[in-house]
Each structure stands twice: as C-alpha cells, then as structure tokens.
Design brief:
The protein has 266 residues and is an alpha/beta fold. Helices cover 44% and strands 14% of the residues. The protein starts with 6 loop residues before the first strand and ends with a helix. Bound molecules: 6-hydroxymethylpterin-diphosphate.
Length: 266
C-alpha cells in the first residue's frame, strides 16, 4: 500500500487554549477559512473540536462547546469526505451530527458521557476510540504501565467490545493509542513502535503525534517548531500500518507522503 492511501485528518481547534494553536481559530470565520485551507491541502477529514484536551486543560461547558463547534461543522460539511467532531459530550456530538459531521472522535472512548454510545449507534456514525490514562487534568501525573503496548491494545479491544455491545457497528470503529494522553516520552515512543501489534485488533489505527510534547522532549524544540518530528513519526507510523494521521500541518504532511511513495515506487 502506498502511504498516500492513508487519510489525513486536519485539526480545526475552535478553542482559546489548545496547546499549539489555541486562540488562532476561535472565531468561526477564521476556523472555517482554516478548514477550507486544510481541505485544499489534502485533508480527507476535518476534526473540529471546541474543547482542549491538553494536560491540565479546564473543562468547557456543553453550551459553550456547542456554540464554538456547530457553525464550523455546518460550514465545512461537504468540503471534505467527512467531518469528525472531537468531543466527549453527547449533546455536542448530536448537534455536530445534525450539522453534517459523520464521525465522533471521543478521547474518552465512550467512558465520558453515558449517552454517547447510544447516540453513535442510533446515528450509524463513525467512532474513534482513543486510549487515555486518567483525564486531561491528571493524566500526566506519573503515568505507569507494565507493558504499555499490550495494555493499550487490551484497553482498545475492551472499549471496542463495549461499543459493539451498545450497538455501534464494528466496521465504523477506528482505534487510537492516544499519543500524549497519560504517557511518558518512553511510553509514546514504544507505542509508535507497537503499531503493528495494535493493528492486529483488525480496525484502522488513527494516530495523532502532531506537535506533541514528546517531540520537544526528544530534541528540545518548542511547540511551534515540531513539524520535522511530526512528519518523521507520522511516516514511520504509516509504514507500520497506521491508516489515519491526525495533523495540524496537512500540506507538509501530504508532500512528505507523496515523496515517500515516489521513492518506494522507484
Ligand atoms: N490529540 C489531541 C486532541 N484530540 N483525538 C484523537 N483521536 N487523537 C489524538 O491524538 C488527539 C485527539 C490533542 O491535539 P490538539 O487538538 O491540537 O490539542 P488540544 O487538545 O489542546 O486542543
């Protein structure tokens, strides 16, 4: 498979406090323009979120999150193959699905809101189940695992089973190891090496390394200077079997994939 067969998921953060682009796209007009740019640059999916999940982030009330996300989803629906909504609240997910989203990206893997599983099942939506140890306020306090890859794989298998038991079609589920969510640098690096093992679960693997702090802790770079590390980890993940890459810098990522394919085909 060519790495350019992968889907790029462009990040649209309609927030004041996201870790790398907080405040840049809080106004719906700028978020919509940014989403259009990412679509033109090669994003097949746009992931629209109204609540930061960075370590220590303060929770956002549902009505505020909905106010941020809904007009942006409505304007971008149809611009790309699919819109996902990055939320763990069923009311926000429902409004986004009504506005044209077709995928729910729930970083709590259906553990955050008891209404979420039934909503996704009833609407026949796509579902991203992500691994997170703890919650964003506490997740980076001394994360510990025995075998991180095995534990994340078992967690994802169990969450997939719970989703299917609640009526979600297995074929609608994507799995994500949750890079940076309750993990040390070493855990993140091990998970990147462990993608083939996660892929044995039989569902597409989505991966988000974009601009994350494990890159900065590896080379000392600041948040706005981690494109090289993002591309390196994303390409390695693609070659190891990841199917969807969640990135902020779609144009640069698409270029890297095209060039890698040209080399692989030579
Ligand atoms: N990472 C972030 C947010 N949502 N969803 C999935 N499925 N996987 C991820 O790795 C992931 C995610 C964090 O990135 P960002 O949205 O840029 O930051 P913030 O949460 O501060 O808005």
């Amino acid at each position: 498979m060519a790495v350019s067969d992968l889907k790029l998921m462009g990040v649209v953060n309609v927030t004041p406090d996201s870790f790398s682009d907080g405040g840049l796209y809080l106004d719906p007009t700028s978020a919509i323009a940014h989403g259009r740019e990412l679509a033109e640059a090669g994003a097949a999916i746009l992931d629209v979120g109204g609540e930061s999940t960075r370590p220590g982030a303060a929770p956002v009330a549902a009505d505020e999150e909905l106010r941020r996300v809904e007009p942006v989803v409505a304007a971008l629906a149809g611009v790309v193959e699919a819109i996902s909504v990055d939320t763990s609240k069923a009311t926000v997910a429902e409004a986004a699905l009504d506005a044209g989203a077709s995928i729910v990206n729930d970083v709590t893997a259906l553990r955050g809101d008891p209404e979420m599983a039934a909503l996704v099942a009833d609407r026949g939506a796509g579902l991203v189940l992500m691994h997170m140890a703890g919650d964003p306020r506490t997740m980076q306090v001394n994360p510990e695992y025995g075998d991180v890859v095995a534990e994340v794989r078992d967690f994802l298998a169990a969450r997939m089973e719970a989703a299917v038991a609640a009526g979600v079609e297995e074929s609608h589920i994507w799995l994500d190891p949750g890079i940076g969510f309750g993990k040390t640098v070493a855990h993140n690096l091990e998970l990147l090496r462990g993608i083939p093992e996660l892929a044995t679960l039989g569902r597409p693997i989505l991966l988000g390394t974009s601009r994350k702090s494990f890159i900065g802790r590896t080379d000392g770079s600041e948040t706005d200077d981690r494109l090289g590390g993002t591309i390196a980890t994303s390409i390695l993940a693609a070659l190891a079997g990841a199917a969807v890459l969640r990135v902020h810098d779609v144009r640069e990522m698409a270029q890297a994939m095209t060039v890698v394919d040209a080399v692989l085909a030579a």
